[in-house]
Amino acid sequence: MTLILPFSAIGPDDLARVGGKGQNLGALTRAGFPVPPGFCVTTAAYHHFVAGCPEFAQWLDRLDALGPDDVAGARELGAGVRDALLAVPLPPALIADLAAAHRELGREHAYAVRSSATAEDLPGASFAGQQDTYLNIRGGDELSAAVRRCFASLFTDRAILYRARNGFGHRHVALAVVVQRMVVPDASGILFTADPVTGHRGTLTIDAGYGLGEALVSGLVTADLYRVDRRTGALKELRIGDKHVAIRAVPGGGTVTEDVPEDRRRARVLDDAAVAALTDLGARVEAHYGGVPQDLEWCLVEGRLWLVQARPITSLYPLPAPGPDDGAVHLYLSFGHAQNMIDPITPMGRDLWRAVFPFGKTRLDELPHGAATMVDAGSRIFIDFTPALRLGPTRRLAFRILRAVYPEVAARLATLVDRPEIQAAAKPRPAALGLAARMMWGVPFELAWLLLGARLEDQAAWADRLVAAWVASFRAAVESQPPGAARLRAARHQLTGVFQVMPKIAPRLAAGLLSLGRLRRRFADTPHAADVELLQRGLVGNVTTEMDLRVGDLADLVRLHPDLRAALEHVRPGQLERLRDLPGGPAFVDALAAFLVRFGMRGQAEIDIGRPRWADDPALLLTSIRGMAAHGDAPGQHRRHFAGLQAEAEAAAARLVAAAPVLARGWVRRQVECVRYCLGLREHPKYLFVQCFELVRRTILAAADPLVRDGRLAAPGDVWFLTYDELLELVADPHAFDPRPRIAERRADYEHSRHLTVPLVVTSEGEVPARPVPKDLPEGALAGLGASAGVVEGIAHVVLDPAAQVLRAGEILVAPYTDPGWTPLFVHAAGLVCDVGGMMTHGSVIAREYGIPAVVGVGDGTKRLKSGQRLRVDGSRGIVEVLAEPGP
After folding, report:
1. Using CA atoms, how far apart are residues 51 and 368, in angstroms rounded to an integer?
2. Minimal CB count within 10 Å: which of 85, 461, 536, 601?
3. Do the beta carbons of residue 767 and residue 745 sit within 8 Å?
4. Average pLDDT for 700-710
């Protein structure tokens, strides 16, 4: 049992023995970086130590039962387990080995004693600062005491909660202790090889202060900030901090906090030569770790740099991949934000979207590589928007559209688009421009026909017929091929061209949007401005609204039968027929079956083909039905409410026409009709796509079934962690390769990516531009986009999973995003707050139709707001205020 390892003996496979910090110091030492010498007290020593605590296993049992948000419990249990461990002496063998290592390294020196957990300084989890550090330790007894205190610090309150929230089991984490010779620095600080705030990989940042770095880390001083352009080495920004104190080592042991002389408090800590040396050191360390951005702790002693720690920067969002091949900087937009779904997407789901994009292709290889791309980052999809911004006409059109439907995207792009490195990006390929022209050439003519003379009342029926015909053609083309590889190829080929339907539907949406804009301008600053917004209530022909109303009908069938309502909680796939034995069961089962025929292909996060549909697992839908039925609404109330919204809109329409001059009334009436009958078609393209997606999904699962039977896949769901071409290869030859290692690795990446904060806009260098904040924002309020006008006050209900939570009538729905799988919750919502969204994303449209105030795109509302708070949601100004905290 190895209890002590010197840095020079630590190898790349020693994480389990020395923890993240120890492993990094070993790697840096072996690579020849200027690391002060030291050794590690290994996890074997930790296990030997805790074995001397007889009640340790019982403490771990209590910690495993602790909730991730139980701060009081963590405080109580943490204190208890630390006290128990501090009462245990170090084992004699450890004391002997520690004394020998101390003697060999030099008992006359002072040492820093730092905790090094096995779940620390890792690429996927930092755990920085969770355990304890002791500086300027002198003498054998003090060293032994510091090691024991470090062992106990594995159970600080903050470390317990951090592990609980990040899924690390308390009994599966161990602690090593780094003992490193102290250097007494003139200056010290932290270096990030990428900007930790913006994510920019081309910017290196340095924080610097006097003396030991603890004054900086603990927040006692405002450090100097140096931001360096890594491409040129130029200093981009210098911000001098107020360094009024410094922490220094005391010769006899320990540290002292000293006042900094007045003339040095606002002076530069680092001159240009020191900044250049640190920049070079950071670049070399990052290169050593394969280009992974690093967080370095450094010291400067009489002009000599020492590196005392390096760890990956875990807070950066991954770079879009593959990156651009033209040497320029590209701009990417989050596809998930545009679709109001920011969960990770399975590899199969991402692969199929790349087959579809850019919209309008007729075959998979129609465009040359790089014409317009969807790329991956953090298990999400991003769209390369750079080509649209390179040409003046397309740039102006793009910004005009974005300012209307997603103004935050426009505001963020505007801060980046004029940079020379972005303007240097390749222009759109002729093939891409030709595709766009071919796809949209008839749109202006049809748009003019809609605005001037087309019959509008039957637009919804026309769209229903169009979708039904398109889906039937899609199904026939796929099912005409024999099962297996041929059918798989046909399914992808058909999906590639599915959005050729857009030139037929796009003119109607454009007519509705243009008419809404014209009416807003005409009635701006008049008493009828509010009537223009009322036109969007109860729109005609919205297929998602129809779905919601039919969910309400299902809830009505359950409402009057308590036993049936209770049974919905326990129904699993394949068990619906059991409900027929309960009062009201036959009518409900028949109605649900009819609903699933029309809408069973829908579900939460439906843009990911790897996510279950309602037809796969009706429990996802039954939770919403049960929650709606539990409220005391009279049967049919949801339809009466919607009819009331439609009546309000029609009354507003009549007022607008009457308010116009006589000669303009025909024109105003036409614009009103375009809004009422055309805007509701917004959901039809997605409704078409999810039906086609479902046909592809069934084809994939059918092809995967033999692979499951043969043991090549452990379960049908594993197929979503392959690419389409990999599945085709396995269907052709089940033994072409072993898919299980790839699946396991991708599933782990997928699960880890759930915890990432997804940027709305990101560059190919990783920079995430800051979101603009309104100047008149009240203190403590959240700012977003006012997507549905009005002001409402109510109790917040933060919902992260609509399949597991229901909303009470009058509550304000606070959600990360919404898609059709969420809309049953809207029936009882008094207001909506969404982390993501624009004017035409799903939640915004439904909120306007239902007449509830909505603020979307607030960024982190689900983290900053809590269920039970009383909120004021101002959907006109885009502001959310907390009026009161939850009651006792």
Report:
1. 64
2. 461
3. no
4. 96
Query: Please, what's the largest Cα pairwise distance for the chain?
Result: 101
pLDDT tens-digit series, residues 792-842? 999 999 998 887 777 888 899 999 988 877 777 777 789 999 998 877 777
Q: In the 3-class helix/strand/coil scheme, how is 381-404 assigned residue by residue?
A: EEEECHHHHHCHHHHHHHHHHHHH
- Give residue 443's pLDDT band: very low, low, confident or very high (50, 70, 90): low
Question: What secondary structure letter does DSSP report for 429?
Answer: P
Provide DSSP, 286-318: HHHTTT--EEEEEEEETTEEEEEEEEE-TTSPP
Q: Are 722 and 739 in contact (CB under 8 A)?
A: yes
Amino acid at 437: A
State both tokens at 484: 């297996």
pLDDT over 70 (residue 471): yes
Residue 803's CB is within 10 A of a number of other CB atoms, namely 17
- Contact present, 727 and 704 (Cβ < 8 Å): yes
Query: Is-catalytic flag, 842?
Result: yes
Alpha-carbon Rg for the chain in angstroms: 31
Spatial neighbors of 246 by CB under 8 A, at least 6 apart, are 209, 210, 211, 212, 215, 221, 257, 258, 260
648: nearest Cα among 538, 788, 527: 538
Two tokens at 331? 């701009």
What is the Cα–Cα distance from 865 to 800, expressed in whole angstroms? 12
Domains for the chain: give ranges and CATH numbers. 1-181 (3.30.1490.20), 183-316 (3.30.470.20), 331-441 (no CATH), 543-648 (no CATH), 782-884 (3.50.30.10)
Q: How many CB atoms lie within 10 A of CB 229?
A: 15
Is there a contact between 477 and 490 (Cβ–Cβ < 8 Å)? Answer: yes
Res. 425: pLDDT tops 80 = no
Instruction: Tell me the C-alpha distance between 344 and 753, whole Å.
Output: 7
Q: 59 φ, ψ to 5°?
A: -65, -40
Evaluate if residue 242 carries a pLDDT over 90: no
The secondary element (H helix, E strand) that includes residue 716 is none
